[in-house]
Amino acid sequence: MPVAPPAAPPAASPRPLVAHGLAALALSLLLGLQPVATDVYLPALPMLTAALGAGMGAAQLTMSALILAFGVAQLAWGPVADRYGRRPVLLWGLALFTAASVGATLAGSVATLIVWRALQGAAMAAAVVCARAIVRDLYEPQEGAQVMALALTGLGVIALLGPLSGGAAAALWGWRGALALVALVGALTLAFVALRLPETAAQLNPQATSPGPLLRSWRQIAVHPVFLAWALLVACTYGGLFTVLAASSFIYIDVLGLSPAAYGLAMAAGSFTYLCSTVVCRRWIGRLGMAATVWRGAFFSLAGGALAAALAAGGVQAVWAVLLPQCLFLFGHGLHQPCGQAGVVAPFPRAAGTASALAGFILALVAFGVGRWLGVALDGSTRPLAYGLAFWALATCSVAWTLVQRLPRLTHGPAR
After folding, report:
1. pLDDT value at position 398?
2. Distance between CA atoms of 27 and 96, rounded to whole angstroms?
3. How far apart are CA 347 and CA 140, in angstroms?
4. pTM for the whole thing?
5. What is the CATH number of the domain that holds 294?
6. Distance between CA atoms of residues 313 and 149, nearest Å
7. Which end of the chain is more exposed for a tag (fewer CB within 10 A), N or C?
8. Which residues contact 138 (CB under 8 A, 6 or more apart)?
9. Residue 335 lies in a domain
10. 3-state secondary structure of 223
11. Cβ neighbours around 216 below 10 Å, total
12. Residues of the chain with pLDDT under 70
């Protein structure tokens, strides 16, 4: 009696066809919500602090609450995106982000503002988680890093315009004008996704939100050496960036005496440096690969941190003494981020949302810690910003020159 051949496994669905340009634009807008929620807001932060009668700790909490909620919410949005798809998560998340931004604009007390900012962060998490997952949906790791670099060039443009537009809005309409601008950007991004962005997940995972499989997936991802290397790199370089974001408005405006508009120009200079580095990153990834690009980027990170610490220790309190080290560090940041963002999801094609969420959670914990530390460390000098930047520069170099460089000898296969 003939034996029937074993059934063939189900064929994988083809990858969705999304043009590079559309994918890069979508990623720029989605990832750009993070600098929009911070950079547009920063020029108005000292003004907001005075208007609402908030202390330094409460002012920092308006940033830290957003970042902590952003990190925790990713742990929920990631599995949901793997289970139900990127598009529905994006639509719900962007709608909530826009509503929370309107609520923040109308807040009558710093406590109410902190609540709305936390909701903003939780909603923003959906956009960032899905953006990283979309890269893995559409591309293999090295190509994904190049597309991510292109997207981060767009993000650099957003980051360049953010402090300029936030400073102008704050000068014209006060701190509420800057927050209203954030709400407008959220609404426009929601409209773009609703009208132009298709579902990118070729396969959905029905068990992604089940407690048992989800816990196993988290454990497998968390101990994967490829994930650990790239996630730690992203968290360390973002720790330096967040030190700049959370401290810069007080340093430039209160300590160095810049107006909100001039502060916006200073931050725009850093954003322009970041934008240039993402262009360099695309070229270096194609020629050298991701690990070598990160190796080179670490020298810029270290130069920025060391120069900042040396100038602050020497008592140099001038705009150039803060801005030059900041730009050096941000050039390195623009080389690390595309590689790290693509690297954290590379081994997990069926759990890209979950891997993205876990990496984002680690990043957010670092940023929350930085914000809480700055709430007590800011002392009317440039030293807290400079020494914080130096610390994270050393941490970034340690990961870039050790863990990342070992990756070619490690298994890059997907977790089972």
Report:
1. 96
2. 19
3. 10
4. 0.76
5. 1.20.1250.20
6. 35
7. N
8. 15, 16, 18, 23, 144, 147, 200
9. yes
10. coil
11. 14
12. 1-20, 56, 141, 408-416
